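queue> holo job accepted (flavin-adenine dinucleotide)
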Amino acid sequence: MSTAVNPDLLQERNRATFDPSQLTYFLYDGAEKTKRKRYIQNLAIQELSRMGMKQYATLSREEQYKQALQKHAYYVQTQQRLGLTDPHEKEHLFQAVLPCEASPLTLHKSAFVNTFAMLASEEQKRKWLPLMKEFRMVGTYVQTEMGHGSFLRGLETTATYDPRTQEFVLHCPTISSIKFWPGGLGKTSNSCVVMAQLISNGQKLGMHSFLVQIRDLDTHQPLSGVTVGDIGNKFGYHGNDNGFLKLDNVRIPRENMLMRHSQILPDGTYVKPKNDRLMYGGMTSLRAGIVGVVSQRISMAVTIAVRYSAVRRQSEIQPGGGEVQVLDFQTQQFRLFPQIAVAYATTIASRSISDYYQRVSAQIEKGDLQELPMLHALSAGLKAYCGWICMDGVEVCRLACGGHGYSQASGLPKIYVDTTPACTYEGENFVLMLQTARYLIKCCRKVAEGEALPEVMNFLKVNPGEKSRLDAQLFMPQLIQAYRHRAGRIAQEVSQKLQAAISKGVNAGQAWNSNSVQLINAGKAFSQLYLVQDFAQTVQSFGGKLREVMEALWRLFAVSGILNALGDFMLDGYISSQQAAMLQQRLLDLLSELRPNAVALVDAFDFPDAVLDSALGRWDGQVYEALYDYSLRSKLNEKQVLDAYHKYQRPFMESQWKQNKAAALTSRL
Ligand SMILES: CCC/C=C/C(=O)SCCNC(=O)CCNC(=O)[C@H](O)C(C)(C)COP(=O)([O-])OP(=O)([O-])OC[C@H]1O[C@@H](n2cnc3c(N)ncnc32)[C@H](O)[C@@H]1OP(=O)([O-])[O-]
Ligand SMILES: Cc1cc2nc3c(=O)[nH]c(=O)nc-3n(C[C@H](O)[C@H](O)[C@H](O)COP(=O)(O)OP(=O)(O)OC[C@H]3O[C@@H](n4cnc5c(N)ncnc54)[C@H](O)[C@@H]3O)c2cc1C
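queue> job finished
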């Protein structure tokens, strides 16, 4: 394969008006840390290549599972060998080892060990954490059942305390109570944190967590009373053995209930937690983390699509003027540039929600639960909103690559199937957004009662007759104010509708359901406002040329967000039709303004080729060579004439000939 860089890509890089390495340093916290990231990733990529790892897309499901295990083992061992302690460095390594390749061991640390550490008492941690950390216990987080995932209070698996033996009896009483979906459960885990309804002294005490061993630690055979296995092929995620688990009167010692927040005493007496939502802490942590996962996925997808669009030449703009880079079509820019903006906006939001999570967790550790509701509302809303826009964005990128985007060689199907479940796992997005809306409605009531709100919620104090002062300059404060007004107006309006329905005697549940489409819209508007504000704040920290480019990108994010939900902004007359027309024109101007920097903006993400795993998104732009090479490696090309030809195709063809011969004979008679 040629080693030269495609001349179109070279020219794109030369015409950029800013230095992309400045942006790379922003993303990876400086030049030194960027260098270190590159060292770690290159090392892993080279070592894995020497170990003979195969391209994910060319493997069968079983092979994907096996290779994911092999790679995950390499990931943990390399972490240890390099003495990595910084979580970012671990993430860089992980990205290079398992890029969008689901691993059966992912949940061991992120969900099993972390949830255990959050919910176990100090004594329990002393006993079990070492076994978990040295992978003697390999585990996952087992909550969802066949019949219930969203509505946790509906879970049916029971943990009944038996004071005579001081044990819990874990039992799945119905087919719908079989645990279903947990990652790594089917074949890999020997232990798990199980969520079950606690029953003691005949009292139902709600959902609690239990440490349950499901397989023998040496033979790996399922223990007595345990039926466990893989749930079968899915939409994607094939490296992961998402599993089912049926517990049939399985007994575990009393000490296996995770007792940090609530306890069962030996005689069966129940000690309540300070706040029963603390049990949900593991989910909150994962939701905050998912914003980072999906932002990485859209960043990868848009890198591929923009580089490919710079290399791909097809059709003429000027008849006879020669074929142009497809990136020069306004429609291509209209599809792709907002995705670059989404990639940066969500990356920035992922950092701030992660910082906020750390801050509030530290307060919770000290017993201060004041910010828990806000953390829940924000992590749920951002997980859902960013999940949606990143999933949609990945698909936009795939479609923008035309036919080749449909090939696994593009890397885009692999990214898509790895992004889309983020809209379902860790809380189905609509369900989560309704939780955010629940918080917004509570805040609206506070406004009505004249109570103080947290600073970030002050947008709910809406000025009803307000008109936008937006003009063609697209000043930051006016754009942000548009989002504040819209989010406040929608939340207040739906809050009033709920109040009105309730005062007419409609019960609260019915009133909620009848307004839930608008409640979702309120949650989205709030989450979008958060992204717009957060992105704006970051842009203001840049200087020089970089600031100019990032301000244009921010404006594109803000303007396209308004245009995509124009009704929301115009319904109460806040934005006039003249302003809407002005925004439509300014959006097109922004596309032209950003055009020279499109490639530099995606280059700044600094994804190695092995991470993108894409014939279309290669750094050197040699896409046709890579596509052809991928095709030649197709398993179907291993033989010139396949067995299937002799077994099915030829007999079928011959049967058709015979039929036709018979028909010809009949017609002659
Ligand atoms: C890598 C892939 C790994 C995947 C793993 C998985 O998928 S694992 C499986 C992932 N599965 C899922 O994610 C399942 C999704 N489902 C759920 O999380 C819950 O069923 C629910 C939150 C939807 C409702 O729960 P519910 O019926 O108990 O609650 P309710 O509506 O009656 O509200 C009661 C109060 O609780 C509050 N509150 C709620 N959550 C939290 C929290 N985390 N923190 C703090 N607070 C929270 C709420 O604000 C409300 O406060 P208020 O207003 O009364 O002061
Ligand atoms: C790849 C993957 C990995 C997973 N990993 C794990 C894991 O490790 N551990 C684990 O325990 N689980 C896991 N899950 C399960 C996952 O958490 C659940 O599927 C998820 O929480 C959604 O629940 P559900 O399947 O019951 O959806 P449902 O609730 O049945 O959703 C169906 C529809 O009903 C709607 N709906 C439900 N309730 C409401 C409501 N109150 N208001 C409005 N609409 C509603 C939803 O919006 C959705 O449109 C995983 C799932 C996937 C796909």
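queue> Residues 394 and 416 are 6 Å apart (CA to CA).
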